[in-house]
Amino acid sequence: MKVTAAASSDLEQAVGCLANAFAQDPITGFLLQTGPGYQGRVSWFFSLLLRARLALNMPVLVARDTVSILGAAMGNSTDSPPWPAALEEEWSNLETVVPGFNDRAAIYDEIAQKSKPPQPHYYLGVIGTSPATQGRGIGKRLLESFCGLSASDQLSSGVYLETANPLNVRFYERTGFEVTGQGSLGGGNLWCMFLRHERRDDA
Predict the structure, then answer these.
(1) Domains within the chain, CATH numbers bracketed
(2) Cβ atoms of 153 and 77 closer than 8 Å
(3) Which of 70, 76, 131, 188 is deepest in the core (most CB within 10 A)?
């Protein structure tokens, strides 16, 4: 198994992997509302995020063996340029198709905005592995690789993320993340976490 930067040819497999990984996730369940058509909405959601980040040359990583993609991670670097117009329009269509999406996204964003560090940082928006391969250290490898990209960027003060899974909080804490804030998300809780890079002052 190896972790590499994703290519556009990885899109279909990576989306399928993430849709399976997040089938029971509290955040996607809250934003996209479980029920009829939910799995299709989740796939569309991740397809949009992946295509936008690939188009903008944002960090997108995949873990793969010789046959298939086993996990993926994606987010933003310290620069977050606007999406291409066609993808912005498609995102607006998603907002229209999912009733109440904007209201729920506003609740999510309000919690997150209070806990984001003011200094430039990388944002780990999504990380997931195929349920059939969990427990093999794939998520850890993806996380370490993403954090390594941030650490190698002198503009970045660290890596910020959110999670609504209490088991994930312990997973991230073992890597050095600290909880910077939290809030109620639907019937659960959203934790905001940050991994700070220790920068040496050479001056």
Answers:
(1) 2-196 (3.40.630.30)
(2) yes
(3) 70
Dihedral sign of CA atoms 148, 70, 47, 125 in order: negative
Closest CA to 163 of 133, 188, 129: 188
The b/e string for 131-144 (b: 16+ C-beta within 10 A; e otherwise) is: eebeeeebbebbbe
Does the CA dihedral 35-52-189-161 come out positive or negative? positive
Residue-wise pLDDT for 127-141, tens only, equals 999 888 878 899 999
